[in-house]
Amino acid sequence: MHILIVDLLAERQAFGREGVREIISHFDSPEVSLWSPHVAQRVDYEFGVVVEKPVDSDLIIITGSQRNVSEWEPWMDDVAHLIQTTTTPLLGICFGHQIIAASLGGQVKRAEKTSALVSEVTYSDGRKVNALFTHQDHVVDSGEMVTTASAGHCSIAACQHPERPIFSVQYHPEAVSAVIENALLFGEMTQEESLQFDLDSKIIDMTEALVLPLHSFESVD
After folding, report:
1. Whether residue 172 lies in the annotated active site
2. Which are the contacts of 21, defined by CB distance < 8 A and separation ≥ 6?
3. Of 71, 74, 80, 111, whose CB neighbour count within 10 A is largest?
4. Domain containing 182 — which CATH number?
5. Residue 163 CB-density burial (10 A; 0-12 exposed, 13-18 middle, 19+ buried)
6. How far is it, in rounded angstroms, from Cα 109 to Cα 170?
7. Are 129 and 208 in contact (CB under 8 A)?
8. Nearest CA to 195 among 132, 117, 126, 82?
9. List of residues 6+ apart from 123 with CB closer than 8 A
């Protein structure tokens, strides 16, 4: 399998490199391409191939970002074009969730405060999971996407497209304890900030959040 990571935290060691490492660990030895249209310089991941534009792949994953969909920047047009035109299965996390919705007729608004917490998420089938959130932008209209889950602070916590193989989540299934520990190590998070997240709870992971729903869609299709 060849995965194109739209790698929008490429300037960060923990949430970028280690986050992507966690994401791809849920696939069987994939070939990985890394596209980061928002920065000229990036952290050396020591895995994957850095590409200057989207390449053909079997799966596209759009990561989180320090940038904001509510404060649109020119490079986001290229990501939006990819979302609108690709026929490749597509997964979005946090910023990825937001830009997918915005690119498909939805709307994203910025809240007054950042939400950083582990929260219960309720899916439309009644399933309840714990998930780690850290975001200030919120999808308030999912456009073509269908809302599949909500949380107390976030009414559109997960989405899927009714016809295309597109799935997205507002939360961070890749933010496992090892990634948080690396964020502390590399100074991307303070100890006080880390205490916002109850990592003693079982938190939904990448496979449960996005990989299995995609496989279910593909098996039905």
Report:
1. yes
2. 45, 47
3. 80
4. 3.40.50.880
5. exposed
6. 13
7. yes
8. 117
9. 129, 148, 149, 158
Query: What does the pLDDT look like over 125-183, one tens digit per residue?
Result: 999 999 999 999 999 999 999 999 999 999 999 999 999 999 999 999 999 999 999 99
Give the integer Cα–Cα distance in Å for 221 and 216: 9
The single residue of 94, 97, 159, 188 carrying the catalytic annotation is 94
Per-residue pLDDT reduced to its tens digit, 91-130: 999 999 999 999 999 999 999 999 999 999 999 999 999 9
Q: Which of 18, 22, 159, 174 is catalytic?
A: 174
Q: How many domains does the chain have?
A: 1
Picking from 199, 185, 127, the residue whose alpha carbon sits closest to that of residue 158 is 127
Tokens of 113: 């405060």
* pLDDT beyond 90 at 39: yes
* Backbone phi, psi, residue 121, to 5°: -115, 130
Catalytic residue status for 94: yes
Q: Which of 135, 159, 172, 188 is catalytic?
A: 172
159 noted as active-site residue = no
